[in-house]
Amino acid sequence: MQDPQLQCLVKRNYQPAFTSETMPRLLYVSRRPPTQEAHPRLLHAHPDFVEVLLIDEGSARFLIGDNVYEVRSGDLLVFNSGVVHDELSDSPFGSWCIAVGGLRLPGLRENTLIPEDASPVYSTGAEGTDLRALYDVMFRYLSNDRPDCEVFCHRLMLALLDRALTITGSTSLRVPANPEPSSLAHQVQEFIDQHFREPLTLQELGEALHASPYYLSHVFKEASGYSPMQYLTRRRIGEAQNLLVETDLPIARIAEEVGYDTQNYFNLQFSKHVGMPPRKFRQSLHSAPERDE
Question: What pTM was computed for the model?
Answer without folding.
Answer: 0.74
